[in-house]
Amino acid sequence: MPSLFKASPRPGKAFALWDSFKTRLANLGFFVRQDLVQRYQADILGMAWLVLQPLITIALFAVVFSALMRARLPGLDPTFGYTIYLIAGILAWNAFAQSITRLSGWYRDRAGLYQKLALGLYLPPLSVVASEGVLYALGMVIFVVGLLLHGHGVSLHWLLLPAVLALLIVITFCIGLSLGLLEVFIPDIRRAVPIGLQLGFWLTPIVYTPDILPTWVRPLIDLNPLTHGLGAVQAIVVFQQMPSLRSLLLLALLAVLSVATLAWLGQRLRKAVRDAL
Fold first, then answer.
1. Quick check: 234 and 143 in contact, CB under 8 A?
2. Is residue 79 pLDDT above 90, yes or no?
3. What count of other Cβ atoms lies within 10 Å of the Cβ of residue 5?
4. DSSP assignment of 57-105
5. Backbone conformation region of residue 72, classed left if phi is above 0, alpha if psi is from -120 to 50, else beta
6. Widest Cα–Cα separation across the chain
7. Which CA distances in Å does 207 have to 12, 107, 231?
8. DSSP state of 75
9. Model confidence over 120-129: pLDDT tens digits?
């Protein structure tokens, strides 16, 4: 008589996918740890810089712009309002700029490793945005503590912040790695990236608000996707309000387009990149 409690067959494919995911996640964690350790291993204070660097940056901005320059924004606290606006933008911009800079030279900088090891095209460089994300998260924790001590508060709109940041991470990774793939064949990209980032900084409302610009400049600023990305972060953190639906939709669209572009480039250039390294 067959058992009523006969074990169901093991879903091999599902377990294989799960094991593959765990392996990839463990590998990503290894790359992130290595990235952070190598970044600070030559320093006397070592990993303490993970906290000290954002803490010093935030403290400097707070002192300079609230106590010395006394910059003000309408509708915000006259003492710390502009400082909060500036720090919210600078923290996100620094994470974006550092990720783009490092990803744009990823493959050529590690040509020796790719010649010796069968490294994946996407997983190892993902550690760049992950480690920069760790630094950004630490900076935000310090920033939020400062906001709470100041009485700025945290609203329910902050629940949208992880979704906005996730879209920005996807866009950053895809743009940076697309540049990295092309840089293998067009070395000039390495020279152009810092110039592009410098231009992008001033085309993004970080140290100013769009409403102070001349009318003819605003459409140009509006074409910059980071205007909408960092604007959404500033809307949540600084102004305690819902980001515009238009900005969120544009970010989502850009994320889809950037993923499609990276996938297309990866498929076309995968073999050529390995041969060229």
1. no
2. no
3. 5
4. HHHHHHIIIIIIS----TTS-TTTHHHHHHHHHHHHHHHHHHHHHHHTT
5. beta
6. 87
7. 54, 33, 12
8. T
9. 788 889 989 9
